[in-house]
Amino acid sequence: MAFLALERVSKHYGAMAAVDDAALTIEKGEFVSLLGPSGCGKTTTLQMIAGLVEPSAGRIVLDGRDITNEKPNRRGLGVVFQSYALFPHMTVAENVTFGLEMRRVPRSERIERVREMLALVQLSVFADRYPREMSGGQRQRVAIARALVIAPPVLLLDEPLSNLDAKLREEMQFELRRIQRKVGTTTIMVTHDQAEALSISDRVVVMEQGRMTQVDAPYRLYEQPSNAFIASFVGKTNLIAGVWRRDGMAGAVDIGGIRLEAPSADFPAGTPVTLSIRPEKILLRKAGEGQLDGRIASRFFLGSQWLFTLETPIGTITVSIPNQGEEPPAEGATVGLDWSPASLRVIASAMAHPGGGTA
Amino acid sequence: MISRPSSRSSSPWLLAGPGALFFAGMILLPLALTVILSFRVYDHATGIKDAYTLSHYIAVVTDEYYLGIFWRTLRVAAMTTLICAVIGAPEAYILARMRNPWRSIFLLVIIGPLLVSVVVRAFGWSMLLGSQGLVNQALQLVGLSPVRLLYTETAIVIALVHVMLPFMVIPIWTALQKLDPMVEAAAWSLGASRFTALRRVVLPQVSLGMLSGCLIVFGLSASAFAIPGLLGGRRLKMAATLVYDEYLHELNWPLGAAIAIIVLVANLLIMLAYNRMVETRARRMLG
């Protein structure tokens, strides 16, 4: 049986559904991310689990116990807020001990547990500082320590890394994962950053306009996005509109008279479809040696890789190739584009996100 | 260090000049004159003489009548401050939690009393609290015996609380607006009840706002004139009404000046001591 289950949970504000019929089961010890653009309902979902927002419909079950209508202070879940919400008038140690005090843990045990927790987040020497005297990353760790010291069954993280600068954010991602592995707490993290979600989660839940549209392991989410929105939101991709054709055992897609070989899919011939291909799956060859020719419209050097935009008969295509230490073809040159048909993904156009394109 | 042009260094003085002149002319000068006046000899037959004495101060601090009035002033001001804090803090909290348009409407309701003259409000209260006023009529309706409210300290405190409440609510409300709304939720998630979260997390963070509110309310209450004058009647005097009487009824200006100086110094001492006590603690916590 699942450790934490959302059973058809919805939240309506008037006629607007912030979260619509969300169903999710999470196993003990799992690290699950809720990923989506702002306004997709991911934070509302987290707040419903935390008890800060009351669901309009559905049930939330934690370890066999229905907690749908339980007050937040009775749920005993650890929450790390986006703003950290540290108590500014208390020292780090006082912040961390607060939850234990509320649980009437004896003083000696409190001191011991706070000491252990501060050691875990590597803040032992800062115990007597006030939050205002600490950097963003340190405050972040205080917030994690404060949430974990009460040994919660579930840890909820609301955009925990969004207030940190890029380099620190990367460090904290792995730090977060290390701490989570060590204490083994079931964790749900809300984020709008797909890289963050992919790198540290066991499973990622993609939310769009209040709905959970795909729940998958990071790798599968990236390789097999279930619709065009996810394809473009998780990582970068090229989306090309076309018409499905049967071609013997395999399939093919007709794009304005150009026929591309594609993996077999279960569509009737003539269905409008969207093709998705990741920029890093396309190889650049000499003109005429690939499946298509294209002219390099622009070229950007990103350090570890080169990013190209190419004008081709099927539209503008983005390609990225790793930096091998040699200068690749220059802007204006005509090159061939090649890929393995298996790296094409065919998505029914009805599911494609309106206005979707190269992202 | 780089030396600046001389015109630069005089600009702070020029900028502060008008304010400083105004302050000197309107406050320091009259205050100095009042201090000098308070040491002048007074004779009931001939008026103020050209000699100096400490007798007015000695008379005030040794006379039970004056001391009683000082104690009453202190008591009424302290009571008003306490009640304002007890009512104002929750009021500010509720106001901070409101959404527009309700917040704007209720902010106006809170500031509303300031838009009506103190004299009019005092008369309003005297009508409500009088022996045949609305309060006593209501008490009689539910079968209780009428109580004497008008011309008591209670009446003064009630009316002062009404007038002073905005001065308490607004600084606390300002402090609450700077508060991260999520800290309260954080306290709940850690197992604190709503009340504990308010007491342990919200209240300490608005203590500075409350401190300024208390200082304003105490200072204004201790020197209030119209309300004690109209609701305290002729016999129940407070410091400001006493000074008024000495000046305009007894015509003993030096004694009135001495009382005014004593009230000023006492007020200053109390407020500074309070400020030191609370603020140093709060500053250490909140930075």
UniProtKB/TrEMBL annotation, chain A:
MF term (GO), any: ATP hydrolysis activity
Keyword Hydrolase: no
Organism of origin: Microvirga brassicacearum
Keywords from the named record: ATP-binding, Nucleotide-binding, Transport
GO cellular component: ATP-binding cassette (ABC) transporter complex
Name of the protein: ABC transporter ATP-binding protein
Keyword Transport: yes
UniProt record, GO biological process: quaternary ammonium group transport
Protein family according to the UniProt entry: Belongs to the ABC transporter superfamily.
Automatic annotation (TrEMBL), chain B:
Protein's membrane topology: Multi-pass membrane protein
Keyword Lyase: no
Gene3D superfamilies tied to this protein: MetI-like (1.10.3720.10)
Cell compartment(s), UniProt: Cell membrane
Cell membrane among keywords: yes
An individual GO BP term: transmembrane transport
Main location: membrane
Alphabetical list of Pfam families matching this protein: BPD_transp_1
CDD domains: TM_PBP2
Domain ABC transmembrane type-1: 70-274
Membrane-spanning parts: 20-42, 77-96, 105-129, 149-173, 208-231, 251-274
One term under GO cellular component: plasma membrane
Keywords: Cell membrane, Membrane, Transmembrane, Transmembrane helix, Transport
Domain of life the protein comes from: Bacteria
Family: Belongs to the binding-protein-dependent transport system permease family. CysTW subfamily.
Protein name, per record: ABC transporter permease
Upper taxonomic lineage: Bacteria, Pseudomonadati, Pseudomonadota, Alphaproteobacteria, Hyphomicrobiales
